[in-house]
């Protein structure tokens, strides 16, 4: 629990919600009971096994956390049939030699197959890792038949279509790069939105749109189809766009036929390789600040008030400040309750949202983990917005037995991966 000031401490004692340091007797790494949090070790079949477990778990919302290292599936991964979040460990993982979470499809057999398939009606979030060298030709690395959200992901150097969005499906690409593929970067017939992302250097073309809608916000689509054998940056103009750039004038954006002066894909910090903006790039400072995220693809915090186009922000720095946990309310009851607000003013919290007691909502797994409580229950207010937010999240602890003490603790983690033990 949290150490409040002297006056609330007295009220808290009278309410018998005593502030003590407790050992975590029950660790709930998910936001609600029953949700599976799976931590497969790097290897050949471990990720496939974790997806199978998540598909068969009775709870409708599960999480797979990828460690540093190489996941090398030897076959297409099982189709995802249930709400799932696959995530790395944010800024705590760096793509140094042998490090950084990555899915490598070098051994995928048969290569003429989709690597990751999201079934119709299923909501999947991919977050903070690299997928490379997967699939072949007209097959997809990620085939979205449902709802897919990418946060801080690199789809880089794959042989197949890096992201395929089916008719009726929805995909949102945030702070991510889709680059250096041997086929098309993105093929979409559904609803596709790219925010502060980079689609570049794909041999077969950038974005192929055969139906649905395409929205480009603060996004770079550039240098695709370098040999002139495939489609251009876009084979159809964007449905809507805001402060975006292409290199050949085919996307219908604010800055057409402009070179963003991208530096070759390399390690620039964070969990994935990125494409930095070279000196003098017209993409620097050209973004719409109102649609710019708090951090870039590396989970680095933007410098100043400017916003660059694309997934890489020039001058951004790594956040080292943990979030804050403050007692903000005491309710004497009945029932007796204590409210704690978790907030982060730099990298923000989220974007996973929903209440702790709502099994159909996204887990607030980036903000509240390792929850332990005796003689009570905890509920959470929903996160605000669709991206990392500096707004606070309120947790409310309610006593089960008014005659007994309630003890609880949790770990608060911000979007940049910086944690603090709150108790």
Write a brief caption for the model.
This protein has helices at residues 6-14, 46-56, and strands at 37-38, 61-65, 69-71, 83-87, 101-104, 116-118, 123-127, 130-132, 140-144, 147-151, 154-156, 161-165, 170-174, 177-179, 186-188, 191-195, 198-200, 207-209, 213-217, 220-222, 240-242, 245-246, 300-301, 317-318, 324-331, 337-343, 368-374, 376-380, 393-399, 407-413, 419-422.
Question: How are the secondary structure elements laid out?
Answer:
Layout: H1 6-14, E1 37-38, H2 46-56, E2 61-65, E3 69-71, E4 83-87, E5 101-104, E6 116-118, E7 123-127, E8 130-132, E9 140-144, E10 147-151, E11 154-156, E12 161-165, E13 170-174, E14 177-179, E15 186-188, E16 191-195, E17 198-200, E18 207-209, E19 213-217, E20 220-222, E21 240-242, E22 245-246, E23 300-301, E24 317-318, E25 324-331, E26 337-343, E27 368-374, E28 376-380, E29 393-399, E30 407-413, E31 419-422
Parallel strand pairs: 1-2, 2-4, 3-5, 4-7, 5-8, 6-9, 7-10, 8-11, 9-12, 10-13, 11-14, 12-15, 13-16, 14-17, 15-18, 16-19, 17-20, 19-21, 20-22
Antiparallel strand pairs: 23-24, 25-26, 26-29, 27-30, 28-29, 30-31
